[in-house]
Design a protein that fits this description.
single chain, mainly alpha
Length: about 230
């Protein structure tokens, strides 16, 4: 039997199951994020701070929720024996969980990221924030990819929790790092959208590292002959 053959109908059912179970909670995260965007769009110093804080909290909460609810909670509830009763391979299960998690986090992430760019471009906020905002969203997406990879590859709940918290806590040091790079920081308060070499390098590194985390996790699962 070819272990790389995929059972696409079952994969689609598992993805749909995760989405239907948590779509209301995801809608709540999007609604909370929209509140943050409203504060952001008021374009005053205090509202910008409040809006940014709300967005960060919502994105971190949505990332942790997606991983915890579809992976960690299922392990606690021992639902894997039910999945094993289906005509599904470890690779099928991995792809279903990967696509399901990326959808559960990706939809709120995309809505709020595009909303943030729209608020920056169509309000009195300086357009130079576009580069900074995209780098911040890139960091959040990278942190999510790493935490998701650890959660799918490592059975230990302690390590999974550590990976989620550690990757998200690094947001503050990352913001401080960006503020120390003149090629990025000097344009934040202007209306010029400048993609400097450091900004492009950071963004490319985020994309590369995020994809690497997912690919390595997939490679581990492809080598499995059983669920254990």
């Amino acid at each position: 039997m070819n272990r790389l053959a995929l059972n696409l109908p079952v994969i689609r059912l598992l993805v749909a199951k995760d989405w239907q179970l948590f779509e209301k909670q995801l809608a709540a995260y999007v609604a909370a994020g929209i509140v943050g965007l409203c504060f952001l769009g008021m374009a005053s110093s205090w509202s910008f701070y409040v809006g940014s804080l709300i967005l960060l909290i919502v994105m971190i909460a949505a990332a942790c929720f997606a991983i915890s609810s579809s992976l960690l909670v299922e392990r606690k509830e021992h639902t894997l024996p039910f999945v094993m009763s289906l005509p599904v391979s470890p690779l099928d299960f991995y792809l279903a969980k990967l696509v399901g998690n990326l959808a559960m986090f990706g939809v709120p992430f995309a809505i709020l990221a595009l909303g943030s760019l729209a608020v920056i471009l169509f309000t009195p906020l300086p357009d130079g924030l576009v580069v900074f905002a995209l780098l911040m969203f890139g960091h959040i997406l990278l942190a999510y990819s790493v935490a998701l990879g650890v959660a799918m590859a490592v059975e230990s709940e302690g390590w999974n929790t550590f990976a989620m918290i550690a990757s998200m806590v690094l947001i503050n040091p990352f913001m401080m790092l960006l503020s120390q790079i003149p090629a990025i920081n000097d344009h934040i308060r202007t209306d010029d959208i400048v993609w400097s070499a450091p900004a492009l390098s950071i963004l490319a590194a985020q994309v590369l590292l995020g994809c690497t985390a997912i690919v390595v996790t997939g490679w581990v699962h492809c080598r499995k002959k059983s669920f254990y």
